[in-house]
Amino acid sequence: MITEQDRLAQLITQRRATDGYQTWGYHSRVSVAHRWVCVPIPKVACTTTKTVLREFDGLPPSEHIHDEGPRLADFTVADNVEMIMSPDWLRFAFVRNPYARLYSAYKSKIGNTWEQQYDWLRGEIREAFDYPARDSRRAGMVTFDDFVRLVAASDDPRIITDGHLAAQTAVLQQDCIRYDVIGRFESFQDDFTAILTRLGAPDDVRQRAREVLNPTPYSPLAAAYRRELADIVHTLYEADFEAWNYPRDSWLFIDL
After folding, report:
1. What is the CA radius of gyration of the chain?
2. Is the torsion defined by CA of 162, 165, 168, 174 positive or negative?
3. Could you read off the pLDDT of 155-196 as tens digits, one per residue?
4. Consecutive H or E run containing 163
5. How many CB atoms neighbour CB 233 within 10 A?
6. Whole-model pTM?
7. Residue 238 burial by Cβ neighbours in a 10 Å radius (0-12, 13-18, 19+)
8. Distances 248 to 98, 133, 222, 238, 254 between C-alpha atoms, Å
9. String of b and e for 36-65 (b: at least 16 CB within 10 Å)?
């Protein structure tokens, strides 16, 4: 007879073998000492989340916070089954309004031209939308409109599975990872503090959860979006909008 644990083990084995969205081998974080599993999503307060959790585990500060820390894939499948099923473990994550998250990704990864990791994507956008040439190269600041249109139309795995651009539902894999709490970026400080309190974190760690790290500059979303563009984003991330009940017209009411 196949047990629930056996079915979950089979599913975990399959997901770990493919892991196209890097949920198991990159995004996830695990603490054996405090028995929690977290899957921080890029552009959803992930720097603050990882920094505070690292401090909670008694580890020193790191300049490479996104590349360090135990992941689900660092443990056996049997360990993962316990981490996902046991009532002794707390599983949590945070989500964000998709309109705000995508605009934040644009500002930090595309609008900031010092971010060399995404030079290739800027180049593809400039080529696709016939940007002017300077010194034999396409040049010019990539617009948010063109960025959205290329991301929405692309079938390039580098774009589809990129943590900053992938659907949050795809990264979280809720059909496999059974979260106890999914907090909101919009109420992050209160939600994260409540999670840390539940885990027994000391006062100084809980206070750190109220600090904002790696913020993006302020601007209202209505300055970046128009209805046609918002419709494209809503279609692209429809699963996220539906999963967490973010209103279709919310781009008109958010300050970033």
Report:
1. 19
2. negative
3. 999 999 999 999 999 999 999 999 999 999 999 999 999 999
4. none
5. 22
6. 0.94
7. middle
8. 10, 37, 13, 9, 12
9. bbbbbbbbbbbbbbbbbbbbbbeeeeeeeb
